[in-house]
């Protein structure tokens, strides 16, 4: 076996989608392998590192911020390949969920790297601007056809309740859960952005000072009190645990962390677990007195932090940051908009007519897929609940 064969079989699965598309020109054999659904599935499982962020301000086209422009990228960052104008809502492992800007009941699932997409059936409930969704998509060896779920939390202010409507790609249908979350207080409950999924549990930050959790498997909810004092933060995952990242402002000159620090809260009581100093002066000067807040977090210990008009990508483990975007480039500087982490993956968007009945029907999936690509037959050898916290 030559070096090219070793690279083709053992290395390409770890390469981002943009680079793989360039490597198709190496040879006819490489082109056939990179274009096959088998390599796409392997690459989706093995390449899981965040490649960049999709961002969108109010009523504007979305754009992509690659962490490495040479190897990470998508053909159409504005998602112009979709049949109509959309708003980006949530991402998971290479899949992006978008909502029509003309009709709230129309959703699209797509992979921006491959431009594959499909429209979902309309839900039963009205998913207006006050609702919040989350995409649950777990990569596994037997999830060959990219089965996923979407859960939408829909508040009904008249009865002070939140209903949960769940879409399953396996059945291509929506269903309304029997669980409802009832909240107290005089004001209406609002969601601060869409949900963050860890495993089979979805978390939303709410305006009533709690993180609302929903277990997709058992369809039960739970709530965790947010840290005080409240601030602009983001739910994230660090080492498999759910936690909350927030910028802490210190007015004391004797504080060793400096004027600004990144606080990581965790546990059932959401106590401060870690605190990392943010050297804001290195970006904007020592006399900076503007806004500093967390925009988004990703599961591999990275945080997007707004420092004045600069978007900083901060590595929690290395305690280092770099400027990746200036908001002066955006049409709406008053709002930083959404920053959704994206993995430059070849993960497939399965058409409805080819969905397997169960995830473990891999033999049937391989047989149908091999017929499509001309590989011939393929065979195989041999009531309140609180989610996981630190």
From TrEMBL:
Organism: Cucurbita maxima
Domain F-box residues, every copy: 7-37
Protein name: F-box protein At5g49610-like
Ranges annotated as spanning the membrane: none
Domain of life: Eukaryota
A Pfam cross-reference name: F-box
Lineage of the organism: Eukaryota, Viridiplantae, Streptophyta, Embryophyta, Tracheophyta
Record domain F-box associated beta-propeller type: where: 90-229
Family annotation (InterPro entries): At3g26010-like, F-box-assoc_dom_typ1, F-box-like_dom_sf, F-box_dom
Protein encoded by which gene: LOC111480468
